[in-house]
């Protein structure tokens, strides 16, 4: 057996081998050591190899999916090796014969299909990148849904596109593995190298034609050599991992990069589009706005947020559908109720195609198509907009398939085919007979006994059973003479004579005995055959089912965004082909939701007005203290632009958004120590990417450029960056800074305006009003913010002394400033404080302390004001 294990393992050196032994998958040698540690299970031993103990561990077959998920998440690949014959067959070849085994599947991050291994509301993409000379292409597929995409992608665009798609695994050529490993793994994906032959465009074209059963790919579009290489590598890798059983893929769809807003990885991370900075989905924009009720709708919404459109017609059709459903609240409620009945049709079809499905996938498709027909009936009662009319076209026409599945399947089937009992009674006469014999065998025998007793005229005739004869007819010797004589002897066949009775059989009884003994297995075999026929019928309708699933997802997203807009008081944005960006009463959806959940202060809405269509850049230079809301203001406007182009209403009183070609965000501070990058270096790398790429239709938000280095270095970098955005990029931008010197640029550069966050000082404290107003801040209030953060009072007092000295020195000139710094006692952490001066109690304060405003009448309040005024004068 170990020889067989080692032989099979040699073909999969980079994977853990799950070696089937009865009811367990066993792992041996180094595989066992690695798996035991990763899964936290016991490591044992089995026999010896070359004189050493063989490490071993195992997992039950029925619970293998959970262990697979853990291993995949920890970066392992798993080769699943099954028994290819019954152990009894192996014994026929000799007592020491080994059961035939072979790998039936290679489980990798990008090739998962089981529900338990996948997030229902997220795609699980496998991508492949190919290059032919200077031309690059990126293909990606979700084998759990059949979605297949291809786009031209030079290597310079690979990072942003992978960040948009978020694949779990990326296939690359062996020759480029070293160059691309860091880029791919930084995005959280596994990288898999394949030989150059997998990317050969000629071989790829043949593989694709074979996959889709066509003689040419012309019907699917025009593909470059790089396109064919990437597509072919995907198919080759699926052939390797699925052991020749390819999933049901839709024809490849060509995507155009210019059709979507370009967003790089840093911006996606900074804006927390689909994942929060803390990790996970909670706290992201997606989790805040997701009100979809179907798995397909959830995946579509994530795609929309990850890839907002730049095509005005597409955006308008989506907004039109949302607006219709906002106005039609009762229809929207009924639509969402119907959508809640829709299972994940795409993934059910995919599992069936890969022979990993079961009866519940068939009933899921039946129920989903039933819900689709119900929704189509609802749509016929209204005048829906274009997008919904187009979706409606694919919701009907499935009556034959629904009728078949409805007749064939019970309402609530078991999970697995081998459990049986999923075919409805009355669908197949042969199955009904087998079930009757299995479940009511005694009744059938009793009926036959009565028939034979009447035929022979022997009321005492019995049908009995023993382990030697099986079923037999028994009567007394007196009555046996009649049965041994013609014409009864032609029916009753003598089998045995005992001292007290004579035993007979009949042809019918022998056949019935065989049927009863095999009824259980026969019923299950018939159900398996019927399951295969139903599965084949479903797969023959796969294209129509895919269209229906996409239409249902489209309706779900439109209804969910309408529900969001209605419940959160969002407005329909005006999206146009211009450079305008005008938002009135804009809000940050995530922060607003968090404030509401905490029961705190309401979110303060703010306006933003950038370019109005005239030539040149339009930049707001935003100053003000930390904690006042500058970063929130920057982010909320970026999210409003993104939401508008994704086809959603936006959190504002009104919004006018000129198409944003690129969205860039440089907000927050983070280092990258693993790659030797300080916080400042990360800041500069991200800023460089913006300045080198942003065009005149980009929207850029920058926060505190230059803060990671010395003051004058930082100020000069921020100054030059702002000038470059204005003069070279000529884009729309929000530029937040602490360098008040930059506010002078508003008077020198036509496209720059100053704005600030309003604050109010009261009794030595700073109050943040979170209101954005035109103008420049005169100070940063850093010491006050430090006080709010809880720094010790001694540190705050010391900071005030140093700040006053520095500001005085700055006013008097550089030499005076240096002298003052030299005079400061640097290690006086706790300055000597004067003895507190006792002051007389304030009559005014004592009077105010005793007043209860809620108890005053208007006349008493007026009298009190005069009294307090007189006390002040005293």
TrEMBL record:
Amino-acid positions noted as binding ATP in the UniProt annotation, renumbered to this chain: 624-631
Keywords recorded for this protein, A-Z: ATP-binding, DNA damage, DNA repair, DNA-binding, Nucleotide-binding
Domain DNA mismatch repair proteins mutS family: 698-714
Keyword DNA damage: yes
Keyword Aminoacyl-tRNA synthetase appears in the UniProt entry: no
InterPro entries: DNA_mismatch_repair_MutS (IPR005748), DNA_mismatch_repair_MutS-lik_N (IPR007695), DNA_mismatch_repair_MutS/MSH (IPR017261), DNA_mismatch_repair_MutS_C (IPR000432), DNA_mismatch_repair_MutS_clamp (IPR007861), DNA_mismatch_repair_MutS_core (IPR007696), DNA_mismatch_repair_MutS_N (IPR016151), DNA_mismatch_repair_MutS_sf (IPR036187)
An annotated Gene Ontology molecular function: mismatched DNA binding
Role summary: This protein is involved in the repair of mismatches in DNA. It is possible that it carries out the mismatch recognition step. This protein has a weak ATPase activity.
Classification via NCBIfam families: mutS1, PRK05399.1
Record-stated family: Belongs to the DNA mismatch repair MutS family.
Protein name as it appears in the record: DNA mismatch repair protein MutS
């Amino acid at each position: 057996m170990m020889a067989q294990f080692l032989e099979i393992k040699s073909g999969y050196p980079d994977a853990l081998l799950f070696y089937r032994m009865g009811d367990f998958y066993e792992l041996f040698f180094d595989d066992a050591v690695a798996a035991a540690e990763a899964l936290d299970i016991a490591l044992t031993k089995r026999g010896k190899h070359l004189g050493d103990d063989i490490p071993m561990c195992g997992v039950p077959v029925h619970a293998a999916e959970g262990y697979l998920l853990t291993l995949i998440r920890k970066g392992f690949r798993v080769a699943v090796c099954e028994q290819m014959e019954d152990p009894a067959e192996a014994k026929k070849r000799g007592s020491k014969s080994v059961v035939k085994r072979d790998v039936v599947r290679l489980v990798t991050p990008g090739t998962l299909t089981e529900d338990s291994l996948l997030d229902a509301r997220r795609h699980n993409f496998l991508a492949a990148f190919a290059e032919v000379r200077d031309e690059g292409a990126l293909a990606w597929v979700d084998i759990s849904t059949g979605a297949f995409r291809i786009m031209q992608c030079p290597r310079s665009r690979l990072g942003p596109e992978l960040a948009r798609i978020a694949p779990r695994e990326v296939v690359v050529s062996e020759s480029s593995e070293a160059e691309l490993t860091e880029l791919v793994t930084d995005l959280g994906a596994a990288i898999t190298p394949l030989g150059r032959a997998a990317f050969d465009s000629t071989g790829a074209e043949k593989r694709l034609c074979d996959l889709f059963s066509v003689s040419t790919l012309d019907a699917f579009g025009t593909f470059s050599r790089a396109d064919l290489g990437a597509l072919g590598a995907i198919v080759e890798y699926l052939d390797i991992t699925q052991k020749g059983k390819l999933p049901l893929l839709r024809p490849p769809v060509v995507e155009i990069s210019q059709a979507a807003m370009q967003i790089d990885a840093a911006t996606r991370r900074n804006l927390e589009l689909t994942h929060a900075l803390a990790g996970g989905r909670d706290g992201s924009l997606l989790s805040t706005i997701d009100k979809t009720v179907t798995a397909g709708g959830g995946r579509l919404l994530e795609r929309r947020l990850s890839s907002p459109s730049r095509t005005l017609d597409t955006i308008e059709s989506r907004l039109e559908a949302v607006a219709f459903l906002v106005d039609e609240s009762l229809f929207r409620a009924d639509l969402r109720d119907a959508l809640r009945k829709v299972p994940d049709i795409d993934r059910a079809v995919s599992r069936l195609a890969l022979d990993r499905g079961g009866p519940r996938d068939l009933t899921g498709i039946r129920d989903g198509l039933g819900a689709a027909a119900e929704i189509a009936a609802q749509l016929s009662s209204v005048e829906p907009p274009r997008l919904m009319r187009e979706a409606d076209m694919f919701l009907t026409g499935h009556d034959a398939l629904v009728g078949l599945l409805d007749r064939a399947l019970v309402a609530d089937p078991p999970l697995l085919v081998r459990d049986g009992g999923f075919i409805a009674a009355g669908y197949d006469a042969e199955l009904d007979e087998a079930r009757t014999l299995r479940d009511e065998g005694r009744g059938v025998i009793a009926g036959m006994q009565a028939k034979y007793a009447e035929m022979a005229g022997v009321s005492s005739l019995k049908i009995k059973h023993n382990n030697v004869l099986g079923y037999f007819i028994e009567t007394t010797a007196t009555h046996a003479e009649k049965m041994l004589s013609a014409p009864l002897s032609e029916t009753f066949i003598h089998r045995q004579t005992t001292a007290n009775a004579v035993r007979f059989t009949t042809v019918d009884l022998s056949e019935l005995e065989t049927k009863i003994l095999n009824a259980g297995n026969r019923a299950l075999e018939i159900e398996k055959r019927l399951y295969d026929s139903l599965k084949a019928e479903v797969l023959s309708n796969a294209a129509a089912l895919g269209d229906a699933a996409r239409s249902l997802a489209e309706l779900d997203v439109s209804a969910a965004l309408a529900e969001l807009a209605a419940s959160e008081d969002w407005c329909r944005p005006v999206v146009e082909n211009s450079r305008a960006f005008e938002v009135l009463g804009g809000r940050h959806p995530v922060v607003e939701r968090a404030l509401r959940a905490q029961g705190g202060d309401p979110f303060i809405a703010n306006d933003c007005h950038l370019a109005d269509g005239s030539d040149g850049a339009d930049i707001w230079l935003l100053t003000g203290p930390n904690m006042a809301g500058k970063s929130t203001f920057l982010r909320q406007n970026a999210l409003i632009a993104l939401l508008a182009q994704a086809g959603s209403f936006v959190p504002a009183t009104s919004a006018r958004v000129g198409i944003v070609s690129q969205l860039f965000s440089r907000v927050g501070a983070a280092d990258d120590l693993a790659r030797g990058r300080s916080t400042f270096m990360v800041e500069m790398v991200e800023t460089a990417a913006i300045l080198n790429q942003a065009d005149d239709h980009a929207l850029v938000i920058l926060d505190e450029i230059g803060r990671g280095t010395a003051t004058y270095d930082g100020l000069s970098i921020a100054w030059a960056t702002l000038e470059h955005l204005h003069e070279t990029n000529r884009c729309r931008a929000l530029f937040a800074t602490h360098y008040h010197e930059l506010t002078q640029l508003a008077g020198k550069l036509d496209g720059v305006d100053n704005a600030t966050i309003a604050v109010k000082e009261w009794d030595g404290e700073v109050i943040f009003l979170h209101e954005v107003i035109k103008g420049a801040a005169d100070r940063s209030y850093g010491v006050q913010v430090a006080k709010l953060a809880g720094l010790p009072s001694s540190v705050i007092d010391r900071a005030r002394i140093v700040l006053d000295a520095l500001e005085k020195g700055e006013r008097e000139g550089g030499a005076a400033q240096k002298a003052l710094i030299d005079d400061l006692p640097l290690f006086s952490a706790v300055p000597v404080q004067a003895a507190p001066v006792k002051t007389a109690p304030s009559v005014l304060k004592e009077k105010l302390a005793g007043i209860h405003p809620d108890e005053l009448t208007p006349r008493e309040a007026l009298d009190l004001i005069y009294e307090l005024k007189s006390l002040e004068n005293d």
